[in-house]
Amino acid sequence: MESTTARPRGVRVATDEFRLGGDLTINRMGFGAMRLPRSDWDGPARDPEAGRAVLRRAVEVGVNHIDTADFYRSGDGAVRANSLIREALHPYPSGLVIATKVGPIFGPKGPRPAPAGDLRALVEANLKSLGLDRLDLVYLRIGVMTPPHGESLAERFEALAELRQKGLIRHLGLSNVDADHLAEARAIAPVAAVQNQFHVAMRDDAAVLDACAASGIAFIPFGPMGSGHIDRSDARLAKVAARHGATVSQIALAWLLAHSPVTLAIPGTGTLAHLEENIAAGSIKLSPDDLAALGISSL
Q: CA–CA separation, 194 vs 28, rounded Å?
């Protein structure tokens, strides 16, 4: 396991900010809640008190954007991310933005897409579990890990847009989409954020990122540190990490934030030490030489 370079108590979220949807100011380094109930999708349940401690510490060091979902839970359903968030942080501090996602329904045979008529119930489940009257940001997630090219999202996105009109949702987002999906959705209602798989070792969605950048839409990748797919022995990453006295994971996060002014990071963890390491990555400023070595030019 990589050693952490983060200072135990002095670390703070870098003050680089983004205006989500034009009216919610959030730090570009946020927090993803998927790993709070268990370390990976098939792993055992984690200690809920440890999860609550991580959430409290995240807010303490300046995180004001938490990404979650009602389906982030342990295999037996006993430990749930939304419940941990509510238990640890409710009543929520002013300025905290909580984003969630709906779309897949999980059953014995795996996930299946929810029809448009089921989306209100899924939104209401998130409202109830988080203890909110309105959700700041709701993503329509289609597909599982990659965009289902050629599949229309119009009916489902229209259902969420109606809930936005009724005041249950403040901003709408998309997850696992391609550029055509983004254009289709934007013809229905404003899109504030896109959440696709994207990291230093997987850059396939550059066209979607470019479309987001052109319109001021947040691009907030899931798995920002590669979810195990980044080669930590990669000479380019290792060299840049050594130059900054950082871990490869920290450089992967710093690269993501440097890639575009609309990219935000939501690294997830269930441990305080890893949280501190992730937050410290937001203060790493990559040089033009670093960025060139990693495959992008300076902003």
A: 14
Closest by alpha carbon to 176, among 104, 82, 256, 225?
104
CA neighbor of 41 nearest in space, from 6, 81, 88, 3: 81
Q: What is the pTM of this model?
A: 0.93
- pLDDT tens-digit profile, the chain (299 residues): 333 333 344 689 887 999 999 999 999 999 999 999 998 777 789 999 999 999 999 999 999 999 999 999 998 889 999 999 999 999 999 999 999 999 999 888 788 899 999 999 999 999 999 999 999 999 999 977 789 999 999 999 999 999 999 999 999 999 999 999 999 999 999 999 999 999 888 888 999 999 999 999 999 999 887 665 676 667 889 999 999 999 999 999 999 999 999 999 999 999 999 999 999 999 999 999 999 998 765 44
92 part of the active site: no
Residue 215, token pair as written in the block: 């319109």
| The one catalytic residue among 18, 31, 71, 72 | 72
The residues with which 139 forms a beta bridge, in sequence order, are 101, 173
- Evaluate whether 206 touches 187 at the Cβ level (below 8 Å): no
**Residues with Cβ within 8 Å of residue 112, at least 6 apart in sequence:** 104, 105
Give the distance from CA 288 to its chain's centroid. 26
In the chain, the domains with their CATH numbers are 17-229+257-284 (3.20.20.100)
Using DSSP's 3-state secondary structure scheme, residue 107 falls into: strand
* Whole-Å CA distances, 256 to 156, 224, 251, 295: 30, 7, 8, 11
CB 219 within 8 A of CB 193: yes
